[in-house]
Amino acid sequence: MSLPVIDKLSLAAPAFNEGAGIEAVTEDWVMYLRRQPAVRAFEIVICDDGSRDDTGAILDALAQRYPEVRPVHHRANQGAAAALTTAIGHTTGDWVLLIDSDGQFPISNLPAMLAAMGQNEAVIGARMAKQDSVFTRLGSSLSGSLCNWFHGTHYRDFNSAFKLVRGAALRALPLEAKGLNYSGEITSKLLERGIAPAEVGIEHRVRERGASSARRVRTAADRLLFVLYVGFRQFLIRARVLQGAPPCL
Predict the structure, then answer these.
(1) 10 near 91, Cβ under 8 Å?
(2) Are 234 and 224 within 8 A, CB to CB?
(3) Which domains does the chain have, with CATH numbers?
(4) Alpha helices in 104-175 (DSSP H)
(5) Closest to 21 (Cα-Cα) out of 87, 93, 104, 83
(6) Element holding 223 (H helix, E strand)
(7) Is the pLDDT of residue 228 over 70?
(8) Which of 19, 113, 138, 170 could be stapled to 53 by a disulfide with Cβ–Cβ 3.0 to 4.6 Å?
(9) Tens-place pLDDT, residues 149-166
(10) Digit-coded pLDDT (tens) for 18-40
């Protein structure tokens, strides 16, 4: 089956203290996309979120070797959501692939995402076998179930960070989350704007290098508060107390 062709694809990723693996991951993306006939041109926008290791220097060196790599830098750490928002704001592609810089989402998942595009404005990559800790999987499952209930949807992986979204629609989203809650917020905000993403199963790998910046107790507390906010926001929209987001054109 032939895949739809994208004139320009942007990858947007946050990075914090990923010096141990960011070079190998980024080079893998570059080499794969250069061989992908369904992508005519691409850019890789990675926001170094005030890393305390050599992540920023490595990204700058990669940009010298590969013109497709476009690093941006936060002078101080602001959290994954802020870094991703900055990366998204610097993209120029017709479509944007949201991806983590830790290598857990293989770029080889892209054809499955392209095949699911159809007439959809967005595609969620559902992790069929999540390679995270039991604690992280439980938190993601519970929060995803609640978000599905609030929206009346049935996504298998509401919180997946691996998404393919039409660039104009993504760049128009008013993102508010901080920390690691950006993935669920993007799904929620797309639904608010009348964009119901398609969903396709993808591979999810074990992190091979570096360590996650998540802190269990703080992350769990933030996730709970954010999910409650999503639910209350949907209630206020349905009660016509909030206007909600305008539909994307």
Answers:
(1) yes
(2) no
(3) 9-238 (3.90.550.10)
(4) 110-115, 134-151, 167-171
(5) 104
(6) helix 216-238
(7) yes
(8) 19
(9) 999 999 999 999 999 999
(10) 999 999 999 999 999 999 999 99
Beta strands 42-49 and 69-74: pairing type?
parallel
Contact 81, 185 (CB under 8 A): yes
Q: How far is CA 139 from the centre of its chain?
A: 18
Task: Please give the backbone phi and psi of residue 95, each rounded to the nearest 5 degrees, phi first.
Answer: -130, 150
Count the neighbouring beta carbons within 10 Å of the beta carbon of residue 20.
Answer: 16
CB–CB of 9/93 below 8 Å? Answer: yes
Task: Please list, in sequence order, all residues whose beta carbon lies within 8 angstroms of the beta carbon of residue 95, skipping any fewer than 6 positions away.
Answer: 6, 8, 9, 10, 164, 165, 166, 167
Q: First CA to last CA across the chain, in angstroms?
A: 29
